[in-house]
Amino acid sequence: MWDADLGHYVDPLYEQWAAEARARYRNAARGSPGETESPWWAGTKAGLYAFFVSGPRNLGVGAFNAGREAVYYVRDVGAVGADAVVTGTGALVGKSWSLGVEEWSQVGRNNQPSNPNFWSDALTNAGRAGLAAGTLGTSEIAFGTYQYAETGDADAFQQQMGGIAAGNLAGAATIKTGQTIRTTARSNAPGAARAPGTFAEQMTPAEAARYQQYWQRHAPQQVQPGTGRLDFLRQSGRTGRMESSRVIYDEFGRQRYRVDLSDHMRPEVHSNPHLHEYQYGPGFSNAGRESVFNFGQ
Fold first, then answer.
1. Which range (13-17, 31-35, 146-150, 187-191) has the least confidence?
2. Cα 187 to chain center, whole Å?
3. Peptide bond connecting 273 to the previous residue in cis, omega within 30 degrees of 0
4. Cβ–Cβ under 8 Å, residues 294 and 270
5. Dihedrals φ, ψ of 259, to 5°?
6. pTM of the model
């Protein structure tokens, strides 16, 4: 029909449809309830929900299910083994004995002995488990990605990733615990080196004894003639403290004077410093005659 305002022919049905479509789009952009959402808003909401709500929830569910499955599987192995022993024992005595074990794990429930493909499915499960352990879960990530591409089930994919993460964390914790136990056992073993507190404690007992004797030795009484003076440091075997001395030698290399820069923690006997003098001559031993002089007394 002719529209005088527009100055051209128009189709009333088309114009009504176009006006309704524009109204729906404007309402969706504003988030009005009961209206069709725009693609970008729907995608944004879905992404936020997956990141903050469904993603963490599914990861937690997957981690919990993986832990429960591991516990159930260990239980099933023990229970089925015990049932086999009881059944075998009963067969030997002509009795039909059984514990009536029912599997708890998902693997056990999905692969009953009545399954015609029991052994092939069991080998497949064992192979997947071994491959997952050897690749630190990488193979299961690839398998889960393939399943997600086939089914589009995001929840199942996220739960599987949560189980893989929990398995890796549990494995890391187990390895760390084993290392700690092994280190503790070695350190507590007889003759094991103790944690280094001092340099001597890192040695064997024989080495530590030689080390202690070295530091507790006194300044030499005899040195190469011409030495003249020697500054000496030793550890007192009585107090455990380091003590320094200055030693003067005569022309024959014999100790003549020694100034100890310590009272040896016996102030009633020695001053700090104090002097040791050695005299040599007829009637004296080879070590000479020692005299001690305190200063300030």
1. 31-35
2. 19
3. yes
4. yes
5. -105, 110
6. 0.42
